[in-house]
Amino acid sequence: MTSLASDRDGQAAQASAWLVRLQADDVGEAEALAFDAWLDEAAGNREAYAAALGVWHEFGIAAPAVSEELARPPARRPAQSLTRRWMAGVGGLAVAATVTLALLPALTTTSATYATGKGQHQQVKLADGSRVDLNAETTLSVKLGLFKREVTLSDGEAIFDVAHDTRRPFTVAADGRIVRVVGTQFDVRSRSGDLTVTVARGKVEVRPSAASDQAFMLTRGQRLEMERTGRAELKAVDPAETFSWRAGRLVYRNQPLSEVVADLNRQFVQQIEIGDPALAQTPITGVIVLDDPGSVVARLSLMLPIRSVPSEAGLLLLRK
Predict the structure, then answer these.
(1) CA-wise closest residue to 171 among 141, 201, 148, 203
(2) Are residues 118 and 193 in the same domain?
(3) What is the pTM of this model?
(4) Cα–Cα distance for residue pair 186/199, rounded to 1 Å
(5) Does 131 lie in the same domain as 95?
(6) Tens digit of pLDDT for each residue in 69-119?
(7) What pairing do the DSSP bridges indicate for beta strands 131-134 and 122-125?
(8) 85 & 148 share domain
(9) Quick check: 182 and 164 in contact, CB under 8 A?
(10) Do 91 and 139 sit in the same domain of this protein?
(11) Is the dihedral of CA 251, 254, 260, 263 positive or negative?
């Protein structure tokens, strides 16, 4: 009997250690494979990990009351304290204390800021298991807490693949609006006050900071375009086209050349200018491969009546 109890305590400690390790930012494929191997290593490992997750969630629910009680002067604490009752309820004071202490590092709020420059893309794995792909010239900050996950997209574009966690909603603040999800995949683009949200999986709510303005619920294959003027339009789209920038391609459908050039100038150090204001409004539909500015402009000249000449910044586009 003692040996069985010891084995269970050991599995509980290992499960708690794995739960903490899997919250780290640098968890890679090798660690994930090792975790899978540990789950199959012994009959009770899966149950122990599920129990550790349950303790984590229970601790999250009880944390405010526990913190308040711990802050009281000792004389004011009842003999059978809330802390002791909670610990006993999860299967014994000693084991619960071990699990809780092991989980404490994972329960603290973590904050980080990520930024990319011209032509830079970056993929980030967050501590909750979510993944974020940053497009060029993008800045975002992340705050992961016990009850919420908050991202602020100051400027730029990012694709979010959010780990499902109903207890901790995932929000992205951009251009005075809040994008709220539980678990989904979507793209958020914030440029000069214009906001675009495209959903590839799950559901996304976009609501303004002012309660009087309209909120939108998006599902797979929908894009919400909100201009700085307040005008909003909901469209049916192919999310793969919006996400194509990760693979080095930009897809346009009847969009002005000025917008295309603005996107290209975020991808290349060598800048492209438009010499004719009327030319800037010329609509373009097509796929642009992001290899180098000269090749891009050469392909653009096959799609539009334009030519290019060298300029101080890089290349100047003129009408043919």
Answers:
(1) 148
(2) yes
(3) 0.66
(4) 4
(5) no
(6) 555 565 554 544 444 444 444 444 444 444 444 444 444 578 899 999 999
(7) antiparallel
(8) no
(9) yes
(10) no
(11) negative
By residue range, what is the domain housing residue 292? 248-319
Q: How many CB atoms lie within 10 A of CB 179?
A: 25
Same domain (yes/no): 116, 233: yes
* 102, 159: one domain: no
Q: How far apart are CA 144 and CA 240, in angstroms?
A: 28
Q: Give per-residue pLDDT as tens, 122-178.
A: 999 998 899 999 999 999 999 998 888 999 998 999 999 999 888 889 999 998 899
Angle between helices 45-70 and 29-41 (to 10 degrees): 110
- What is the SS3 assignment for 42? coil
Asked if residue 181 lies in contact with residue 202, where contact means CB atoms within 8 angstroms, the answer is: yes
Is 147 in the same domain as 231?
yes
Identity of the residue numbered 15: A
Give rounded-to-5 percent helix, strand, coil for the chain.
40, 35, 30
Domain end, chosen from 78, 107, 136, is at 107
